[in-house]
């Protein structure tokens, strides 16, 4: 089973809408938080990480991840902990304030996106989430055959809005 070139061409034509939507949603994120939103998300999901691992997860240079971590630490949203495996290094961990701020921003983004999708059927949005998840896994190099039937989702389609500031 493979996808033909014409379908891929059609998909390429549709991809810019994701960037436009992402930019629109990013405008609603507080400017001081935007550069580190992706880092907060990763730390929330994965727990304490070395800056180099965080940079890898964000697909940015270590210097970018380090600047973001320093900024988030200055806001009290991330803390630095000694790395138990290497005394010369440290790990980054999201704080309770960071988790609360992340959830607040995610909720606001989800509300804004829900307003934009107000004419959509729930099942269509769930299908989009499922297919974008498959596309993400494919892009990340993991196997991603879509299930035959739509899989209901429990979360909102928020995604990583922070990419606007991640590569800075």
TrEMBL record:
This protein's record includes keyword Transcription: yes
PROSITE patterns to which the protein is assigned, alphabetical: HTH_MARR_1 (PS01117), HTH_MARR_2 (PS50995)
UniProt keyword DNA-binding, yes or no: yes
Keyword list, A-Z: DNA-binding, Transcription, Transcription regulation
InterPro entries documented for this protein: HTH_MarR-typ, MarR/SlyA-like, Tscrpt_reg_MarR-type_CS, WH-like_DNA-bd_sf, WH_DNA-bd_sf
SUPFAM superfamilies the UniProt entry points to: Winged helix' DNA-binding domain (SSF46785)
SMART domains associated with the record: HTH_MARR
Domain called HTH marR-type: residue spans: 1-137
Protein's name according to its UniProt entry: MarR family transcriptional regulator
Organism: Motilibacter deserti
Taxonomic path: Bacteria, Bacillati, Actinomycetota, Actinomycetes, Motilibacterales
């Amino acid at each position: 089973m493979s996808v033909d070139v014409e379908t891929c061409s059609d998909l390429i034509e549709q991809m810019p809408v994701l960037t436009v939507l992402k930019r629109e949603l990013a405008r609603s994120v507080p400017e001081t938080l935007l550069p580190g939103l992706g880092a907060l998300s990763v730390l929330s999901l994965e727990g304490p990480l070395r800056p180099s691992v965080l940079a890898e997860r964000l697909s940015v240079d270590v210097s970018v991840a380090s600047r973001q971590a320093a900024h988030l630490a200055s806001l009290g949203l991330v803390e630095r902990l000694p790395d138990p495996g290497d005394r010369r290094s440290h790990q980054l961990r999201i704080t309770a304030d960071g988790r609360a701020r992340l959830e607040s921003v995610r909720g606001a983004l989800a509300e804004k996106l829900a307003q934009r999708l107000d004419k959509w059927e729930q099942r269509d949005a769930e299908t989009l989430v499922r297919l974008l998840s498959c596309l993400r896994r494919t892009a990340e190099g993991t196997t991603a055959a879509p299930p035959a039937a739509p899989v209901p989702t429990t979360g909102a389609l928020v995604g990583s809005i922070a990419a606007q500031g991640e590569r800075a």
